[in-house]
Amino acid sequence: xxxxxxxxxxxxxxNNGLDVELALQIGKIAGERYSGPVALAHDTRIxxxxxxxxxxxxxxxxxxxxxxxxxxxxxxxxxxxxxHDYIVGGVMVTASHNPPEFNGVKLISxxxxxxxxxxxxxxxxxxxxxxxxxxxxxxxxxxxxxxxIEGYIDAVLSDVDVKAISEAGLKICVDCANGSAxxxxxxxxxxxxxxxxxxxxxxxxxxxxxDSELTSKNxxxxxxxxxxxxxxxxxxFDVDADRCxxxxxxxxxxxxxxxxxLFARSALSRRKGKVVTTVASPSSVEDxxxxxxxxxxxxAVGAPNxxxxxxxxxxxxxxxxxxxxxxxxxxxxxxxxxALVRMLEIIAKGGPISDQISTINTYSFRxxxxxxxxxxxxxxxxxxxxxxxxMQTDTTDGVKMxxxxxxxxxxxxxxDSLFRIYxxxxxxxVADRRLAEYVDAVTGxxxx
Length: 448
What we know:
5-stranded mixed sheet, 21 strands
């Protein structure tokens, strides 16, 4: 699909589905929704200024004042929206981890969380919405605001033990993916007395360092640099810096479930409470939460679902294994610079990350996707709920079937025409076999 709407807002290929006309329309819709001063920013993509300008035109056409914050990491933008009472909403132009030919738009509520408004509509519905335009004398104006990064950095550092980190003598390698992390991370590390080696720190917007998704393959060069630069840690950000994953001092990627488990262990050592993650997370997170005296709550996949349940459960932490972590005492969104600083604190107080994750349970975890028309998703899900009748299941998001030695999750993608299959077991061969079995089962049912 060239353009999609879902849990991450609207995304598509630039000028091949996602064009300035659609961005203009989204700006009008957002302006009608917020009807007041709206903050606006973009990440480092080449198309960022173009699409930000189109969104701004739409906002002003319906009478909104636009506060242009320039190029920012998404969590910095969300922090600004949350902490400035006169801002009634925000629009962030970003495609997060998608390749450079993509861009996207997401709406931000006044509390800094992601606004689900656009996520609930199809692209066709967005295009067909008849947005009002005001008369010429009521058209909005745009003004630029600088210096909003400083307050964010102060807030991040106020939430950790700066003294412990500063005295630990740490050195880390930072892969910014030629994205917006470079705007804040060097200053944060400077204030923490942490030495830094930088990779892919260009601000030119090509995003050519590597494919921008956080995968083990894309972190191989980071692992090499960590080892040969004798660093204590490596961190890789996605383009808009709302997610990050880590590499240990031996150059190996830290799986997202294990870094989330470490964050949970740390949070629960300070205060007992609930931790939120998705039904697609390996059981290592649940094991660690239980061992640390907490309560784990499973929710549907997607950052907005995590945030909503963090609020509903008054949770102390939320996160997904893709590197997106929510620290609710800081703000209600995924925040990768905050995650980095928390991980530095964990290492400063507990020693090398490789030693700490060695105490976390390891599971064999596999996943795959099967092409599935959107019109068939509900049918497929109901079929496999019937298949799982009599088994222990969780239907929070799709159907999760439990076995004595693992589980299988079948769920429809919220953003793509895909049905996703996840398989976990204590035995790698069993995880592989069950994944293949259910991929075949979904494929067979779709073709029947």
